[in-house]
Amino acid sequence: MQAVRQSPDGCPALVLNADFRPLSYFPLSLWSWQDTLKAVFLDRVDVVAEYELEVRSVSSRIRLPSVVSLKSYVNHARKPAFTRFNVFLRDSFACQYCGKPDREGLTFDHVIPRSRGGKTTWDNIVAACSPCNLRKGGKMPRDAKMWPAHTPRQPNMFELNEKGRAFPPNYLHESWHDYLYWDAELES
Ligand SMILES: [Zn+2]
Protein backbone atom coordinates (compact mmCIF):
# COMPACT_ATOMS: atom_id res chain seq x y z
CA MET A 1 0.00 0.00 0.00
CA GLN A 2 1.18 3.51 -0.82
CA ALA A 3 -0.22 6.86 0.13
CA VAL A 4 -1.52 8.82 -2.83
CA ARG A 5 -0.90 12.23 -1.29
CA GLN A 6 -0.07 13.10 2.31
CA SER A 7 1.05 10.60 4.92
CA PRO A 8 -1.74 8.38 6.21
CA ASP A 9 0.02 7.96 9.54
CA GLY A 10 -1.92 10.86 11.01
CA CYS A 11 -5.20 9.19 10.09
CA PRO A 12 -6.20 6.73 12.80
CA ALA A 13 -9.72 5.31 12.87
CA LEU A 14 -12.03 5.68 15.83
CA VAL A 15 -13.19 2.17 16.78
CA LEU A 16 -16.80 1.76 17.88
CA ASN A 17 -18.34 -1.27 19.51
CA ALA A 18 -21.22 -2.94 17.70
CA ASP A 19 -23.59 -0.61 19.59
CA PHE A 20 -21.81 2.41 18.02
CA ARG A 21 -20.34 3.56 21.30
CA PRO A 22 -16.54 3.88 21.47
CA LEU A 23 -14.84 0.65 22.44
CA SER A 24 -12.88 2.67 24.99
CA TYR A 25 -12.99 6.33 25.95
CA PHE A 26 -9.71 6.58 27.82
CA PRO A 27 -7.45 5.82 26.21
CA LEU A 28 -9.66 6.51 23.22
CA SER A 29 -9.94 3.39 21.04
CA LEU A 30 -7.99 4.26 17.89
CA TRP A 31 -6.44 1.97 15.32
CA SER A 32 -3.66 2.78 12.86
CA TRP A 33 -4.76 2.92 9.22
CA GLN A 34 -2.94 -0.37 8.58
CA ASP A 35 -4.77 -2.23 11.36
CA THR A 36 -8.03 -0.63 10.27
CA LEU A 37 -7.69 -1.72 6.62
CA LYS A 38 -6.73 -5.22 7.74
CA ALA A 39 -9.92 -5.43 9.82
CA VAL A 40 -11.95 -4.13 6.86
CA PHE A 41 -10.53 -6.78 4.53
CA LEU A 42 -11.11 -9.49 7.15
CA ASP A 43 -14.73 -8.29 7.34
CA ARG A 44 -14.53 -7.68 11.09
CA VAL A 45 -15.71 -4.07 10.94
CA ASP A 46 -18.09 -1.83 9.03
CA VAL A 47 -16.78 1.48 7.73
CA VAL A 48 -18.88 4.29 9.23
CA ALA A 49 -16.98 7.36 7.98
CA GLU A 50 -13.92 8.05 5.82
CA TYR A 51 -11.09 10.51 5.44
CA GLU A 52 -10.51 12.34 2.17
CA LEU A 53 -7.16 10.59 1.96
CA GLU A 54 -6.83 7.55 -0.28
CA VAL A 55 -4.28 4.79 -0.33
CA ARG A 56 -3.51 2.71 -3.38
CA SER A 57 -3.23 -1.05 -3.49
CA VAL A 58 -2.19 -3.08 -6.54
CA SER A 59 -5.61 -3.02 -8.09
CA SER A 60 -7.64 -0.32 -6.42
CA ARG A 61 -7.82 2.84 -4.40
CA ILE A 62 -9.47 3.03 -1.05
CA ARG A 63 -10.32 5.97 1.15
CA LEU A 64 -9.01 5.56 4.68
CA PRO A 65 -11.74 4.87 7.23
CA SER A 66 -12.02 7.49 9.99
CA VAL A 67 -14.69 5.63 11.98
CA VAL A 68 -15.33 1.87 12.02
CA SER A 69 -17.71 -0.28 14.06
CA LEU A 70 -17.08 -3.84 15.18
CA LYS A 71 -19.37 -6.49 13.71
CA SER A 72 -19.43 -8.49 16.94
CA TYR A 73 -20.18 -6.81 20.21
CA VAL A 74 -17.41 -6.73 22.83
CA ASN A 75 -18.93 -7.35 26.23
CA HIS A 76 -17.94 -4.71 28.74
CA ALA A 77 -19.19 -6.76 31.70
CA ARG A 78 -15.89 -8.60 31.72
CA LYS A 79 -13.33 -7.94 34.44
CA PRO A 80 -10.69 -5.33 33.70
CA ALA A 81 -7.01 -6.06 34.29
CA PHE A 82 -5.65 -4.99 37.66
CA THR A 83 -3.19 -2.37 36.44
CA ARG A 84 -1.92 0.94 37.74
CA PHE A 85 -3.72 2.75 34.92
CA ASN A 86 -7.06 1.06 35.59
CA VAL A 87 -6.87 1.75 39.34
CA PHE A 88 -6.17 5.41 38.66
CA LEU A 89 -8.97 5.51 36.10
CA ARG A 90 -11.41 3.94 38.60
CA ASP A 91 -10.40 6.70 41.05
CA SER A 92 -10.74 9.38 38.32
CA PHE A 93 -7.02 10.22 38.57
CA ALA A 94 -7.63 11.98 41.89
CA CYS A 95 -6.19 11.38 45.34
CA GLN A 96 -8.75 9.42 47.34
CA TYR A 97 -7.76 11.14 50.58
CA CYS A 98 -7.62 14.87 49.75
CA GLY A 99 -9.50 14.76 46.44
CA LYS A 100 -6.78 16.56 44.51
CA PRO A 101 -6.72 15.67 40.81
CA ASP A 102 -3.22 14.62 39.82
CA ARG A 103 -2.55 13.13 36.40
CA GLU A 104 1.24 12.95 36.85
CA GLY A 105 2.29 12.31 40.43
CA LEU A 106 -0.28 9.82 41.70
CA THR A 107 0.86 6.85 43.78
CA PHE A 108 -0.69 3.63 45.05
CA ASP A 109 -1.78 3.45 48.66
CA HIS A 110 -2.62 0.26 50.54
CA VAL A 111 -5.68 1.23 52.67
CA ILE A 112 -4.82 -1.59 55.11
CA PRO A 113 -1.01 -1.35 55.13
CA ARG A 114 0.98 -4.29 53.86
CA SER A 115 2.65 -4.48 57.28
CA ARG A 116 -0.83 -5.23 58.75
CA GLY A 117 -1.58 -7.90 56.18
CA GLY A 118 -3.20 -5.65 53.56
CA LYS A 119 -3.22 -7.17 50.08
CA THR A 120 -2.43 -5.60 46.72
CA THR A 121 -5.95 -6.02 45.35
CA TRP A 122 -8.76 -3.90 43.92
CA ASP A 123 -10.39 -3.68 47.38
CA ASN A 124 -7.29 -2.45 49.17
CA ILE A 125 -5.52 -0.17 46.69
CA VAL A 126 -6.47 3.45 46.06
CA ALA A 127 -4.91 6.36 44.18
CA ALA A 128 -3.17 8.82 46.52
CA CYS A 129 -1.04 11.91 46.03
CA SER A 130 2.50 11.66 47.38
CA PRO A 131 1.91 13.96 50.41
CA CYS A 132 -1.16 11.96 51.51
CA ASN A 133 0.64 8.67 50.92
CA LEU A 134 3.55 9.85 53.08
CA ARG A 135 1.24 11.17 55.78
CA LYS A 136 -0.68 7.92 56.01
CA GLY A 137 2.48 5.81 55.86
CA GLY A 138 2.05 2.41 57.49
CA LYS A 139 -0.92 3.46 59.63
CA MET A 140 -4.40 2.00 59.64
CA PRO A 141 -7.10 4.43 58.35
CA ARG A 142 -8.45 4.92 61.88
CA ASP A 143 -5.03 5.75 63.34
CA ALA A 144 -4.17 8.12 60.49
CA LYS A 145 -7.76 9.50 60.45
CA MET A 146 -7.63 9.10 56.68
CA TRP A 147 -10.34 7.21 54.81
CA PRO A 148 -10.61 6.89 51.03
CA ALA A 149 -13.44 8.93 49.47
CA HIS A 150 -14.87 5.76 47.90
CA THR A 151 -14.64 2.24 49.29
CA PRO A 152 -12.30 0.58 46.80
CA ARG A 153 -13.62 -2.37 44.83
CA GLN A 154 -13.20 -4.03 41.48
CA PRO A 155 -14.93 -2.12 38.68
CA ASN A 156 -16.20 -3.70 35.48
CA MET A 157 -15.19 -2.53 32.01
CA PHE A 158 -18.42 -0.60 31.58
CA GLU A 159 -17.75 1.43 34.72
CA LEU A 160 -14.17 2.15 33.68
CA ASN A 161 -15.37 3.22 30.26
CA GLU A 162 -17.83 5.62 31.85
CA LYS A 163 -15.01 7.08 33.96
CA GLY A 164 -12.92 7.53 30.84
CA ARG A 165 -15.52 9.83 29.30
CA ALA A 166 -14.30 12.58 31.61
CA PHE A 167 -10.90 12.60 29.88
CA PRO A 168 -11.24 13.80 26.30
CA PRO A 169 -8.07 13.51 24.20
CA ASN A 170 -6.38 16.55 22.70
CA TYR A 171 -7.18 15.68 19.11
CA LEU A 172 -10.56 14.75 17.69
CA HIS A 173 -11.30 14.30 14.01
CA GLU A 174 -14.57 15.98 13.02
CA SER A 175 -16.09 12.66 11.93
CA TRP A 176 -15.67 11.33 15.50
CA HIS A 177 -17.82 13.95 17.21
CA ASP A 178 -21.10 12.18 16.59
CA TYR A 179 -19.88 9.16 18.52
CA LEU A 180 -18.25 10.92 21.46
CA TYR A 181 -20.29 12.57 24.16
CA TRP A 182 -17.73 14.09 26.47
CA ASP A 183 -18.77 15.31 29.90
CA ALA A 184 -16.93 18.56 29.15
CA GLU A 185 -19.20 19.29 26.23
CA LEU A 186 -22.37 18.64 28.23
CA GLU A 187 -21.35 21.23 30.82
CA SER A 188 -20.89 24.11 28.38
ZN1 LIG B 1 -3.87 13.70 48.64
UniProtKB/TrEMBL annotation:
Transmembrane spans: none
Pfam families in the cross-refs: HNH
Domain HNH nuclease: 82-134
Gene3D superfamilies in the cross-refs: 1.10.30.50
InterPro entries: HNH, HNH_nuc, NA-targeting_endonuclease
GO molecular function, one term: endonuclease activity
SMART domains hit by this protein: HNHc (SM00507)
Name assigned to this protein: HNH endonuclease
